[in-house]
Amino acid sequence: MKRILDCQSSDFANISRRELLDAIAGSEGRTVACETIGAIMPMLGDITNAEFAAAMGADLLILNLFDVQRPQIQGLPKVAPEDTVRKLKELTGRPIGINLEPVEQVLSSEDPEENMWAMTSGRKATLENAKKAVAMGVNFILLTGNPGIGVSNQAITQTLELYRATFGDSLILAAGKMHASGILSEGGEGIISRSDIAAFAEAGADIILLPAPGTVPGITVEYVRGLVSYAHSLGLLTITAIGTSQEGADTATIRQLALMCKMTGTDIHHLGDAGYGGMALPENIQAYSIAVRGIRHTYRRMAASINR
Q1: How far lies 171's CA from each of 91, 133, 207, 215, in Å?
Q2: Cα–Cα distance list, 161 to 11, 57, 155, 181, 202 (Å)
Q3: pTM
Q4: Pairwise CA distance, residues 78 & 94, whole Å
Q5: CA angle in degrees (0–180, nearest 5) for 164-244-3
Q6: Domain spans of the chain, in order of start
Q7: Which residues are 172's β-sheet partners?
Q8: Is 288 exposed, middle or buried (0-12, 13-18, 19+ CB in 10 A)?
Q9: If one looks up domain 29-303 in CATH, what number appears?
Q10: What is the pLDDT of residues 123-153, one digit of tens each?
Q11: Burial 128-160 (b: 16+ CB within 10 A, else e)
């Protein structure tokens, strides 16, 4: 399989779980993933945030706040609800995943007027919702938690076991948290530990998500480096995530975060969805990409037609 750096849209069209994992691993820490929200007005109005993020250099797209029971992506041409993800893949030429949240008890307000992260039934990490997502054509599911929702590492582990037993080798499963998600006992270095990684691996995870150094209090390059090395020793890939709105910081900060993540040895670099809201600042996607893989690979990803 090609490195993801060399893949075109036609390579992604029917890529298998193993092929995509190998393509990421083969790129040696030069894969960029961008999280976007489709349920709110896109930054460009009639162009989806996912398309915008892809145009700025993202290799992988992650849909946040995506309700599989009521799929909605603002800016997407009208399609049948069950074809929402497939249409987005057609327009972006990128592999697409979604966040599902193994919430046991919602800790924040469930009133969308008070809380933009308010939980909906179609975002919960139930088996029914996962099956709907797979039927829609997602390449991967990320088990994680939005701010204040209340997702524990134990709940993630239990869900991983269920999903792996159900989907076997047909679906990439990523797991972890980029902040405490409302569980105060799992803040700082308690967000994820070696024992959590071991549990996720045993339960069937392919990719471990970790907070990027410098984004959460107490999370240093050295700490994340140790966790990345441990995950790699178990045969897993890692993704370092900026989920603290710093994807909306200045480009100098983004470059610093990018190089710190590179030093950890991570495989995938994640930028969250909170620039102005809905996606990272476009200039930061480009700046991050250039920092970890240079202008040639960044511009190539930006310039390549989805018809290739």
Answers
A1: 22, 11, 12, 29
A2: 30, 33, 10, 21, 8
A3: 0.93
A4: 20
A5: 50
A6: 29-303
A7: 140
A8: buried
A9: 3.20.20.70
A10: 999 999 999 999 999 999 999 988 767 788 9
A11: ebbebbbebbbbbbbbbbbbbbbbbbebbbbbb
Which of 131, 130, 132, 124 shows the shortest CA–CA distance to 155?
A: 124
Residue-wise pLDDT tens digits, 213-233: 999 998 999 999 999 999 999
DSSP code, position 70: S
* Cβ contact 198:166 at 8 Å: no
Q: Which helix (H) or strand (E) holds 201?
A: helix 194-203
Average pLDDT, the chain: 93
Q: Which letter does DSSP use for residue 217 in this model?
A: T
Partners of residue 53 on adjacent β-strands? none
Residues 6+ apart with CB under 8 A from 167: 130, 134, 173
Among 103, 173, 175, 96, which Cα is nearest to 141's?
173
In the three-class reduction of DSSP (H, G, I as helix; E, B as strand; rest coil), residue 63 is classed as strand
Structure tokens at 209: 């998500």
The residue with tokens 């339960």 is: 203
- CA Rg, the chain, in Å? 17
- Dihedral angle of Cα 184, 102, 170, 229, to the nearest 10 degrees: 10
Identify whether the C-beta of residue 248 lies closer than 8 Å to the C-beta of residue 284: yes
- The number of residues in the chain equals 308
Cα-based angle 101, 50, 214 (whole degrees, multiple of 5):
60
Three-class SS state of 241: strand
Provide the pLDDT for residue 109.
47
Q: End-to-end alpha-carbon separation of the chain, Å? A: 17
Of all residues in the chain, the percent with pLDDT exceeding 90 is: 84
